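User: My notes are a mess, but here's the protein and zinc ion's SMILES. Can you give me a structure?
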Amino acid sequence: MIFDAHMHIGGVFGIFTANICAEHMLSIMDDFNISYGFVTAASSSLNHNLKLINEVSKFSNRLFGFYWVNPKRSSILDEVSKALDYGFVGVKFRPETDGYNLFNISLLDPILSYACKMGMLVYIHCSGYGASHPNALRLICSTYPELKVIIGHMAQGSVDAIRVAEDFDNVFLETSTYRGFKVIEYAVNRIGSDRVLFGSDYPYSNIQMEISKIMNLRVSWDDKIKIMGLNSLSLLSSKPLLKELFNLPY
Ligand SMILES: [Zn+2]
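Assistant: No problem, the inputs look usable. Here's the predicted complex:
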C-alpha cells in the first residue's frame, strides 16, 4: 500500500504549466499503485484552495486535503474551518512564497492553536534555511506538543531538521524532492522508520523517481513498507473519517 504524503491539485505555472484535476490525479495514482494521497493546492490563494476543496470532495476516500494557509489573511481561520467541514485533515504553510517567517510564532498561533484543537495535521514546506529554517520547528513543537508536524522535503536534508525530529517525537520527515539518499538513510537510523513519509510532490517531481529513491534505500523491507504508506495512514488513524472508511475498531 502506497500513501503519497505530498501532492498538488490545481493550476501550476512557471517553468511548466499544468492544471491538475482530481480525475487526472487518480489516474496517475493508479498508474503507480498509489492508494491514497495528502493533497494541497497550487498556492495559498482562496481560489486555489476552493478548487482543491471541490476536487478532493469528489474522491474523499482516497484524497485527503491540506488547506494551504496564508496566516496574514484575516479570513484564514474561517477558511480553514470550512475546509475542515469538507473533511480536510491538515494545513500547509509555505513561508517563502507567502512572505512571512516561521519564527513569527504570534502570527502563526491562531492557526496552530486551531489545528491543535481540531486535531489537524500541519505540513510545513521547509527549505532548510531562512524563513523556514528547521530550528523554528523547535519553538513550534515545544509550544504545541500535541501537534503532529510534517517537515516538507526533509528541509532538503538539513541536519538541523533531523535533530529536531530526534528531539521531538511529534515531528515527521517527508522525503519529496530531496535526492540525498545517504541522508535519508541517516535519518532512518537516527529517528527510526516510523516518522519518515514518502511523498512525490507531483506534478513538481517525478513519481517513479521518488518511489525508486525510497525502494533503493539500504534499510529493511519493513522500514520501506512503513515509509511508503503505513506511516501516513497511521497519521489518519484517529480521524473519524478514516475510522468510517476502514471500519477501524478504535
Ligand atoms: Zn509541494
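Residues 6, 8, 201, 204 surround zinc ion (CB under 6 Å).
User: Great, I'll file this with my notes.
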